[in-house]
Amino acid sequence: MSHPSGSKALFKKLIPLVLAKLESQEAARLQLSGETSDFIRFNHGRIRHSHSTDQVQIKLIWQKSRRELQFTFTLNQDLKQILQLIEDFLTQSRLLVSALPEQQGFVAITGNLQEERQTPSQIPPLEYFLTEFPKTIAQDDLAGLVTRGFQYEGLANHLGEFLWFEAETFFIDYSLYEGRSASKGGISGAVFSESTWLQNLQQTRQNLEFLKKPRKKITPGAYRVYLAPAALYELIEKLKGWGLEYPSPLSLKKFKQGSSPFSDLIKGHRSLSEKFTLYENSSLGFVPSFNSLGEKVPENLPLIHKGQLKNMLVSTNSAHAYEVNSLNIDVAENILSPDVAPGSLCFNDILPKLEQGLYLSNLHYVNFSDLKTARVTGMTRYACYWVENGQIQSPIEDMRFDVSLYDVWGDNLLELTDFTIPFLSTDTYSHRNWGGARVPGALVQNFQFTL
Amino acid sequence: MSFLPTVLNFQLIDLFRRDCEWVGLREVQEFSTSRRVRNCKLDSVQRHLDRGVFVEVLFNGHLASVSTRDLSHEGLTAAFKKALQTARLAATFKVFNFTEKVRPPTTGRYGASSHFGFSSEAEKQLIHEMILLGEKMRVSEKIKNTLCHLVSIETQVRYLSSSPSDWQQNFNIVMSDLSATAENSFESQTRSDHGGLARCYQKPMVSVDLSHFYETSSKIGEEACLLLEAANCPTQKCDLLLAPDQMILQIHESIGHPLEMDRILGDERNFAGWSFVKPSDFGKLQYGSPLMNVVFDPTESEELASYSFDDIGNSATKEFLIKEGRLLKGLGSLESQARLGQAGVANARSSSWTRPAIDRMANINLVPGTESLESLIQRTENGVLMRSNRSWSIDDERNKFQFGCEWGEIIRDGELKGLVKNPNYQGQTLSFWRNLKGLSAHSEIYGSPFCGKGEPSQLIRVGHRSPYALFSDIEVFGGG
């Protein structure tokens, strides 16, 4: 499997060959996105499947007469064939472009930044995860995924810009089972330590012990709940957006298209709790410092400050389309690394202050159920407990909830913990995603369970 | 342009086979074009050519794989060696001892190889028509946003293995999406062409005539405006009549996913989830009312997930999953069938050359009934008709669900009595399907390119055919 340096060298070889094909009045940018990843999938503490991938795609953005066409192709060693494909694309595009209508939010290619960055890492080779790691879980009914390897992004344009970012990371995303009960665990980062892993595994085993008790059936209604950081993260994820088609609810584009569930917050008709502050923090999750236009992304952008909207996510495309200032957010206008400010609730006070209610470790399959009121529905999952007199009493049967995020992060938000937990993205749809998050736990009242 | 000549040959297979129990090579080439017009202005034209090889090895009863973009002899050999070494090391801790039987010998062809690409003239015409569709959706000043999205895909999968297998499948796919969002000072409402990208079919791009969508476009715009004026769906327990474009979601989430045998085996427990279905339920469990017949059908010519072989070369045939309400069979590939000791179907599928094949849905269809839509409405005393999915959530065992639609209509005393907005309903899978009390003879086909599952994760294309379906005693409610 190739190291990122091989792809970088090939990319650098390809760039002048592609740019040489441009005619006058034409501009181009090349965006590379690649990974060499190893995936080991476990079930019942044994290896279900082991798979590795070496994938690199390059997107050629070609512009002429304020029109843009894009061509994405797989990078391989056969540059002659790639150049022929590009030649064909350019020939067809030149015929098409003159007939294309005005393009919404057109952004001419600019920029000549130079930056090459790689993050330090210390991760054992694949062999360790195939031979030694399985011994640590031999007695566990474990299901999950171990992922390791490089992700990298490159960008170049006809003005001489060259940007490169690579990171070697790993994550172990898993759950342990006893019958139908499950406890969730995981570690991630750029440095793997076996002792940290064993500690995490031991903690998850301990959590599972308690889940062996009979489960309490909860009747639908409003409850006081503690959302552990992983549970609150499931709600925060609804602010992130997904790909080009589904921008963040705090995206200018989404708001202008009339489909933001936070329209009332954006218009100033509603606010959230003073306790709720949210940043887009690109320093959290091994995220490139540049976006797909080659612009420097903001490092720590306040989005919601003490319950009030501070900034929307504005890409340069939206800035052009709606005549506002760009915040150099990427064109998809998603949040990559949400960072929720901590509060004052200390760990030891969580159960006493919850007093009676539900301790929710994780949530599942959260989706908007009503846009006007930012209602979301979802399920409890994994280690969730009934608490009485400030003591955990028993695990619960999973429940469906339907709540307004205006309430959860508004009047019903009692306290946020004084600690936060970092998360590295474990999304692997098509490719490993960049990004992470940092989220505290939250004490919330009147959390509505429906089924 | 046409697909590039394959890099696979039996010399490679013979060479690799010397070191392992079995080897397979799957080469995927996919060319797609996405055109998006928003608010009658061109948003983007994106072309995509993806190509790579998935190398899979069986060694000491363990299957390991490597995906490579390096298609040279050296690249394929390096990928094979890595897969072999991985299988060799991982076999000590394998979850099951697979044999060559899970990779059967297969020969054949599906679909026609095409010369893909675009004529500039045809593209100009398409974009012009898409702008026109946007204009037709803009029926009022209240229309804040319109979207017209058209995607064409041509895929070629070439497969050689030491079984021996030698097959090729070609897929021509067209997906389209139309939507309009209307807004007043209070709220916005969106209406689409049967839900996001629900119109996706296997058919060649040359067969697409966007002028057929003129009427639909105007209707979408008008209905988005009407929703602004509608009352919220009432909260009540009543009959629920679901249109085919919502039924596809209901089938997908509460039949398709729980019947996936890798979920039943626990492979998905840490991600997509488990299933309430147990191995002992096959042949016994009364899943729904006797009206309920569900098939795995890879033979419907235009449906999105039709094929002759799954991605491990198992020949695909139409199979009943549920007959007269009784659960017969799960969605399990040869690997899951071997592990579970149960019959299954040919459903080992992968999203591309970058991912291994796992148990997936393909075309999962609810067999139509005998009634007319009018008859289903006439025999409803108190109910709601819901169309076009817009919200979905179900638990990790596929039991407790809540789904929402774009469009609702009150049914009272056998007649449609007016529009309601933000219609939602909730239920539990078995009791819901056991309350099925009517199916129309008319059925419709839709699909989705977004079925998500797996570690590492994959989005896969699925198709669903469904009639209108009437259920009793369902909790419905509105927004706010």
Structure notes:
- The complex is a heterodimer of chains A (451) and B (480).
- Chain A has 11 helices and 18 strands.
- Chain A has helices at residues 4-19, 79-97, 126-131, 133-136, 194-211, 229-236, 252-256, 263-266, 316-322, 350-354, 405-408, and strands spanning 26-43, 46-64, 67-74, 114-118, 142-157, 162-178, 181-189, 221-227, 278-281, 300-305, 308-309, 338-340, 357-370, 375-388, 391-395, 400-404, 413-424, 436-449.
- In chain A, strands 1, 2, 3, 4, 5, 6 and 7 form a 7-stranded mixed sheet that branches.
- In chain A, a hairpin with a 2-residue loop joins β6 (162-178) and β7.
- The mean pLDDT of chain A is 96.
- Chain B contains 9 helices and 22 strands.
- Chain B has helices spanning 10-17, 73-90, 120-137, 214-229, 244-256, 261-264, 334-340, 373-378, 429-434, and strands at residues 22-38, 41-59, 62-68, 107-110, 143-161, 165-183, 188-192, 199-202, 231-232, 236-242, 294-296, 319-323, 326-327, 348-349, 358-359, 364-366, 382-394, 400-412, 415-421, 424-428, 436-453, 458-477.
- In chain B, β17 (382-394) and β18 form a beta hairpin.
- Chains A and B meet through β1, β2, β3, α2 and α3 of A and β2, β3, α2, α3 and β6 of B.
- β2 (46-64) of chain A pairs parallel with β3 of chain B, so a sheet runs across the interface.
